[in-house]
Amino acid sequence: MTKITAAITAMGKYLPEDILTNKMLEEMVDTNDEWITSRTGIKERRILKGEGLGTSYMAIKAAEELIEKKNLDPAEIELVIVATATPDMQAAATAAYVASEIGAVNAFGFDMDAACSSFLFGMSVAAKYIESGSYKKVLLIGADKCSSIIDYTDRATCIIFGDGAGAALFEPDEEGFGVQDEYLRSDGTGREFLRAKRGGSSYPWDKDTFDKKEHYIFQEGKTVFKNAVFNMADVAEKILTRNNLTNEDVTWLAAHQANKRIIEATANRIKLDSSKVMMNIQNYGNTTSATLPLLIADYEKQLKKGDKIIFAAFGGGFTWGSIYLKWAYNS
Ligand code: UT7
Predict the structure, then answer these.
(1) Residue of 22, 24, 146, 225 best suited for mutating to test ligand 1, as the one with most atoms within 8 Å of CB
(2) First to last CA, the chain
């Protein structure tokens, strides 16, 4: 019997119009363009503004772009997964709303949260549904309105994060394209170093604690940085070794866009030339669950059938991992 693999067959993306530049941040907190650029690689990020607009707004736009480009009947989509750390609401699946709004009337939907690794882990889940033969069209959307949990007086976090969404359609492939291998990890002792503490079940909302700003993201940057560098490089190297790939074999590295220096360290560990490293952090900052699909969407026109892509991510939890995927189409 022919082995079924899970291939990405279409991409879509959405970025809010409002731009927050380093220069604008200079007016808001004690920082400067030179520091942000040299320490992170970020020049600007997008911010979603508008009463009542949440993550679903961007997820829907990204999915709609994909549907239009692929000329897809949304009624054929069987599953919608929204990978996000900032769902619209605490207790209603954002994915269910997104599915209904895009006309995926025959689909079921659920959200997935593994912080900045949400899309990577979502790729694994989408692939398993396809490989098992259960479903033939799985829409995975990575979307985050990071600005909704950022304190714009905290220079340690407000310079990094941005909003955005990217969507990928997964379908069965019988020629061997798509997801080849994965190595996914987590370590819960890391949650003290990167988290939005208040608003979940352990520390619910409380009017007296609002002023403590515990509902915003807190990050101990240096600790997260060290762990991200070590672990992303480690899993990328493991994926190469396990699949007998040399740096020559790899066409692209698609790494979570949290900090240019972390991405470069990962590329250096696997001795990858910088021309093979996808990079768009300068334009969007860290969009959490949206970084990987936004990278692929931005590089889509340069991708060729058969390209060997190494995905890698690291995020809160801690969560991290790497996926090896063979690209399935020419644009
Ligand atoms: O996506 C999830 C995973 N997240 C990440 O991977 C993020 C990982 N962490 C990082 O990217 C980096 O740690 C940051 C970009 C957050 C910070 O860069 P850093 O090189 O680790 O800086 P630092 O926190 O060690 O601070 C160095 C100096 C300090 O001053 P002193 O003590 O040397 O005088 C900070 O107070 O830079 C200062 N500083 C700033 N200066 C200007 C910290 N933030 C800023 C700022 N502007 N925004």
Answers:
(1) 225
(2) 30
Separation of alpha carbons 1 and 30, rounded Å? 62
What does the chain come to in residues?
331
Residue that is written with structure tokens 């993201």 in the block: 217
Per-residue pLDDT tens digits for 97-137: 999 999 999 999 999 999 999 999 999 999 999 999 999 99
Distance CA 291, CA 312 (A): 11
Token match 């988290």: residue?
195
Contacts 24+ apart (CB under 8 A), 273-280: 273/247, 276/250, 276/251, 276/252, 277/252, 277/253, 278/252, 278/253, 278/254, 279/41
- E strand or H helix at 255, and its extent? strand 252-255
Q: Rounded to 10 degrees, what is the CA torsion of 315, 317, 318, 322? A: -60
Q: Is 116 a catalytic residue?
A: yes
- Nearest by Cα to 259 from 158, 120, 114, 161: 161
- Residue among 260, 281, 49, 300 at smallest CA distance from 167: 300
Domains assigned to the chain: 5-176 (3.40.47.10), 179-326 (3.40.47.10)
Report the interhelical angle of 55-70 vs 94-101 (nearest 10°). 40
Q: Render pLDDT for 261-314 as a digit per residue (tens, 0 to 9).
A: 999 999 999 999 999 999 999 999 999 999 999 999 999 999 999 999 999 999
Name the token pair of 84.
Answer: 């996000």
pTM for this model (two decimals): 0.97
Residue 249 CB-density burial (10 A; 0-12 exposed, 13-18 middle, 19+ buried) = exposed
Closest to 216 measured CA to CA, from 166, 260, 155: 155
Q: Of 116, 146, 158, 231, which is the active-site residue?
A: 116
Place of tokens 């999915």: 63
The ligand 1 site (C-beta within 6 Å) comprises 31, 35, 39-40, 116, 155-156, 159, 221-222, 224-225, 228, 258-259, 262, 286, 314-315
